[in-house]
Amino acid sequence: MEILYEGVVELFTIIGLKRVIMWLIGGLLIYLAIKKEMEPTLLLPMGFGAIIVNIPGVYEGALKTLFEAGISNELFPLILFIGIGAMIDFGPVLSNPKLMIFGAAAQFGIFFTFSLASLFFTPEEAASIGIIGAADGPTAIVVAQKLLGDSSTITGAIMVAAYSYMALVPVIQPPIIKLLTTKKERLIRMPYKPKNVSKTTRILFPIIITIIAGLVAPESIDLLGFLMFGNLIRECGVLNSLSDTAQKVLANLVTIFLGITVATQMTADKFLSPYTLLILGLGLFAFIFDTAGGILVAKVINLFSKEKLNPMIGAAGISAFPMSGRVVHKMGLKEDPQNFLLMHSIGVNVSGQIASVIAGGLILSFML
Amino acid sequence: MTLNIENFIASLKFMWQGMLCIFVVIGVIILSVYLIGAITAKADERKKAKQENTDNN
Q: Which of A258, A273, A314, B37 could join A298 via S-S bond, C-beta 3.0 to 4.6 A?
């Protein structure tokens, strides 16, 4: 009876009020997941997890065990990458490898935000905040965990920002794209001329990428290796059952645990600070400058190229697969119902996935 | 909240180095993809020619 009484009394203290605020934030995430369908596979578990961990004494329970088993050692995000790798078809980018330039350009926001965040945070914290711009939850978790460890007070905000902004890609990107492109540029048609990509190329691609990226940025090998392993399972043609499992069962299973476990970092004492707002702001900044980087490089290429590119496809280099590719495609259709940019934008989008992982590895190489 | 200008200036080095590294890595990957494409295309042509010879014989 006394335990019940203590719990209720605590709600009327400052700490209790903070816990109630965190329940409301958890509720907001659940609302966004269900009502707005914003990244529901992650926001819903995170929202519910945020409610659980802010009940007094709960953090010492099973969620802490899950956190130590899967996030502390970066296991969950890496396993999830096997599933993501198995989902990705690199066909469009193998058909037109030049598209990968935009994947590289759209990582500008990561490094720019890193510099900006250095004004307010330590270099390790700033680097972890910059990586929100990777628009890739697992990469953000791995980099933040490696650089900051379990005890950091800002990891929760970084993870929430990374996943929330991924869900907000359809809201964040269109205004920036419109601001940086003219109507004439958005109307540029890019006919899709698919080339025949041999099975050997598809099999060699993940192996070669792993070797090249591993040599240049060894710290990216965990993430990229798992991503490319998943893709190799998909493309080899003899492991269809494993590929199917990785894409569906494995990815879903890890996502369930990942979302609710990430929420262990959303305790009131860590999350409710002015720095959280600053991190959310910087994360948004990273997304904006990633998008701008891709678009501006496309515009520069257009200055020298006979065959003009629709600069909107540069925006899809932000990773956030496949939302960003779809956003660009839809914007193209809105301007001209006969302009199908999907294959180009998805090609850029998967390039962004590779480039963001390499960027994460580079950041780790710089900092460790 | 104080602004740490020294940190900011030090981080600018990472910004240009990071972007340069990404473009170099992606450039190497692009070249590799073209190279794989060319090699596999030649191998396919040889395979086809061999198959045609076998069929003709």
A: A314
Q: Is any Cβ of chain B less than 8 angstroms from the Cβ of A100?
A: yes
ω into residue A322 within 30 of 0, thus cis?
yes
Please determine, for residue B13, whether its predicted confidence score (pLDDT) is greater than 80: yes
User: Could you give the CA distance from residue A219 to residue A368 in angstroms, rounded to a whole number?
Assistant: 9
- ipTM associated with this complex: 0.86
- Inter-chain CB proximity B8 and A119 less than 8 Å: yes
d(CA A174, CA A102): 17
In this complex, which of A94, A101, A217 lies closest to B33 when CB atoms are compared?
A94
Contacting residues of A for B5, CB less than 8 Å apart: 119
Measured distance CA(A122)–CA(A29) in Å, rounded: 29
CA A49 from chain center: how many Å?
Answer: 20
pLDDT at A220: 84
**Is the sign of the CA dihedral A338, A343, A346, A347 positive or negative?**
negative
